[in-house]
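Example 3.2
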Amino acid sequence: MEGPSPVGSAPPLVVLGTENFYADLLSQIGGARVKVSSLLNDPNADPHAFESSAEDAANVADAQLVIVNGIGYDDFMEKLLNASPNATRIVINVQQLLGIADGANAHIWYDPGTMPKVAAAATTDLAKLDPANAAYFSACEQKYLAAFGPVTAEIAKLKAADSGTPVAFTEPVAGYLAAAIGLEVLTPEGFQKSIEDGTDPAPGDVAAEEDLLTGKKVRVLFYNSQVVSPITSSIHDLAVANGIPVVGVAETIPAAYSTFQAWQLAQLDALEQALAHG
């Protein structure tokens, strides 16, 4: 079955997703009518330590539509946007779109409800920029949403089988996803926040985290494979030594996956396998 086709021969819209999963959303919904770039797309880099380049500034300056995450995750974008004011540029701030308070877990793309809402906003705004292709964008949005079918089914499957299962985090990257499944996170909040902030956790929190693993009180360790430190590496190794399965989660789409949906499904499949053996 052939997909929708755009109309007209105007130059593609220049759009930017600050993180590559938002760029992927724009690519899937904008299709042939967009030229997409992203800034946070290195699977080996700490997004919290990002420093923009002249090329990044130029991409932002040219963009007609920009998606930012908010909640302090990509504050550098405010400076880049202000450096190239454009009254016609549309900015989708996902924090504002969802009505999320400052200080919340910033990894909101792991919430199953987030991307469909961002998709709706992007579809509307792309149609504002290119009204002739409103129907095309809407059709592409439906394809984008349909691709979440296996992801939604896997979450439901895990929730039915594993709700209430105790797990540990190195930091709360997949916190929203764990909540959607109903997993019980036993890692001290102080430990998670310290790792996320790049500071050393309190000794008591470290001891409590280690006890979860040596005491086999959790079935799985969620490990941020993108932001690694000596402490998180030690926790990872302790889990392995005690037979606790480790599920790697990342902050941006790794190069091995062509879409956000494929990436999320792969992580859920890895979680299912870990829970089966944990």
